[in-house]
């Protein structure tokens, strides 16, 4: 499955769960992505694992466990990006490959950036 196929599945799931009943602005999408990254930072600051399961209060079976952790929050950001890309018919698979190939041509620490 390439990124476009995954994006289509992600977007369909979001639609089926009511997340696109109202139009969202581009700023809303970026804010939602940023919030997922902030949650990843919070997990890191709290010295949480990259991946673990949380059992919501009162639920203790395998079906009720919720994936959590730094990696999960990063995945949530990717999922939000893929959702938006599918909605806007962006060929994200192609764009990621194009950008990656371009990045390989850049000089070491291009632009004098510190981080």
Summarize this structure briefly:
It contains four helices and two strands; from the N terminus they run ααββαα. It is mainly alpha-helical and 115 residues long.
Question: What can you tell me about this protein's structure?
Answer:
It contains four helices and two strands. The protein has helices at 3-16, 26-45, 70-87, 92-105, and strands at residues 52-54, 66-68. It has a two-stranded antiparallel sheet with strand order 1-2. The model has no long low-confidence stretch (mean pLDDT 93).
Name some characteristics of this structure:
single chain; 115 residues; mainly alpha; 4 helices; 2 strands; 57% helix; globular
Low-confidence stretches: none
Relative helix content: 55-70%
Calculate Rg over CA atoms.
Answer: 17 Å
Taking all residues together, what is the mean pLDDT?
93
Shape: globular
What portion of the residues fall into strands of 2 or more residues?
Answer: 5-15%
Quote the distance from N terminus to C terminus: 33 Å
In what order do the strands lie side by side in the largest sheet? 1-2
Q: What number of structural domains do the residues give?
A: 1
Query: SS-based structural class?
Result: mainly alpha
Largest sheet: 2 strands, antiparallel
- Supply the number of helical segments: 4
> What is the succession of H and E elements?
HHEEHH
Number of strands: 2
């Amino acid at each position: 499955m390439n990124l476009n196929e995954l994006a289509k599945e992600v977007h369909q799931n979001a639609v089926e769960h009511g997340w696109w009943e109202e139009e969202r602005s581009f700023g809303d999408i970026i804010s939602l992505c940023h919030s997922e990254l902030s949650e990843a930072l919070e997990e890191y600051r709290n010295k949480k694992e990259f991946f673990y399961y949380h059992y919501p209060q009162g639920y203790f079976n395998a079906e009720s466990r919720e994936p959590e952790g730094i990696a999960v929050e990063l995945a949530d950001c990717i999922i939000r990006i893929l959702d938006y890309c599918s909605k806007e018919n962006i060929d994200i698979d192609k764009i990621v490959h194009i950008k990656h190939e371009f990045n390989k041509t850049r000089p070491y620490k291009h632009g004098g950036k510190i981080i």
